[in-house]
TrEMBL record:
PANTHER family (UniProt xref): 60S ACIDIC RIBOSOMAL PROTEIN P0, LARGE RIBOSOMAL SUBUNIT PROTEIN UL10
A GO MF term: structural constituent of ribosome
The protein's name: Large ribosomal subunit protein uL10-like insertion domain-containing protein
Origin species: Coffea canephora (Robusta coffee)
GO cellular component annotations of the record: cytosolic large ribosomal subunit
InterPro entries noted in UniProt: Ribosomal_protein_uL10, Ribosomal_uL10, Ribosomal_uL10-like_insert, Ribosomal_uL10-like_insert_sf, Ribosomal_uL10-like_sf
Amino acid sequence: MGKNTMMKRSIRVHAEKTGNGAFLNLIPLLVGNVGLIFTKGDLKEISEEVSKYKVGAPARAGLIAAVDVVVPPGNTGPDPSQTSFFQVLNIPTNINKGTVEIITAVELIKNGDKDGSSESALLSKLGIRPFSYGLIVPSVFDNGSVFSPDVLNLTEDDVVEKFSLGLSMATSLALGISYPSLSAAPHILINGYKNALVIAVETEYSFSQADKVNEYLKDPSEFAVVTSAVACHSSCCCQGREERRTC
């Protein structure tokens, strides 16, 4: 932590001495009240550890509330002469054992609303510090790359899903422009086989992979038998699934 000007100078001097210009990517991030944490540990664990530490802060008139502020029911401590203070804020109270008691929980300030002087004074009187301050991680730097800390929350399943989506798009592009990429190769081979099969059927030219199809075309009754067997198998499977759903 320090003056941004000094931190920027330190980074430039370090980059010049080591020849590692990757650290210069940190300079645009040094804006406002920021600091740097250097670690050789797991970045996600460091981020979680930093977010644990927060300190309570009182409500102040004119500030925008970051959370809903609810005053809980119960004994407040002030004497009955201060009942009017609660009435101004529409807080239901009664007198119990010589002190003011709040009957039900009251939402005093809503998230996004501006704190009023009366609300701030009441919270201060009750000793309630509804807000908190702490460090947040706005950016992560690793091996010269700067990225959002949201990346640290990605799981292996998220990575696999994004990779699969990218692979699917790359395969579609390769097929669209007839580029023989590794992911498109199986589709290109299958499409080529289909085209060769069509030619074999039309010209009666035969090769080993087309022989079975030609046999079906010469004897449609055998093809009907196979189709019937597949249909029966599908029917049984559907019936089995239906029975499982019923159970």
